[in-house]
Design brief:
Length: 160
């Protein structure tokens, strides 16, 4: 499980990490927290290289590219499965998040009950990622996830 934090304010990164540790402490042994505090030329390739389940926590106001733009990039690059959580102190962007074709899980205000709202949303995100079992394999350097419910049968070719 990979938690990807896109936030430029250290105090909020610390809050997000505390909530993550609080949730996953006893349940998930293998997890990563990956932090980005700006968008530069290597950020997108670093995001693309992360393998496994992902949960994104994106702030709207980050240097280089805002969180909504990054969410659009994530979806345009084909990742429609990973939950995206938008966090901001600007509630006026809420409608943009819901209408911007980014399939966002939640929009959390930094000014409200940040920790409790994030906790509830991360619990839901983990449930989403854990309930859909899938067959994962790598072919020519690309990782594929096929949900078990979509598999009719598996066949192996002896010649291939």
């Amino acid at each position: 499980m990979n938690f990807i934090i896109y936030e430029d304010e250290k105090e909020y990164v610390t809050k997000y990490k505390n909530v993550i540790y609080k949730i996953i402490g006893p349940t998930i042994l293998n997890f990563n927290i990956i932090e980005f505090n700006e968008f530069n030329s290597s950020t997108q390739s670093e995001l693309d290289d992360i393998e496994g389940n992902k949960i994104y926590i994106l702030d709207i106001e980050v240097t280089g590219k805002n969180g909504l733009e990054l969410a659009r990039n994530i979806r345009q690059n084909g990742d429609w499965r990973s939950p995206i959580i938008i966090v901001t102190s600007h509630d006026e962007f809420k409608t943009v998040g819901y209408t911007g074709k980014i399939l966002m899980l939640n929009f959390i205000s930094k000014d409200g009950k940040l920790e409790s709202d994030l906790y509830e949303t991360l619990e839901l995100a983990l449930e989403i990622n854990m309930t859909k079992k899938s067959l994962c394999y790598t072919h020519k350097g690309e990782m594929f996830h096929i949900p078990h419910q979509d598999i009719l049968y598996v066949e192996k070719s002896l010649n291939d």
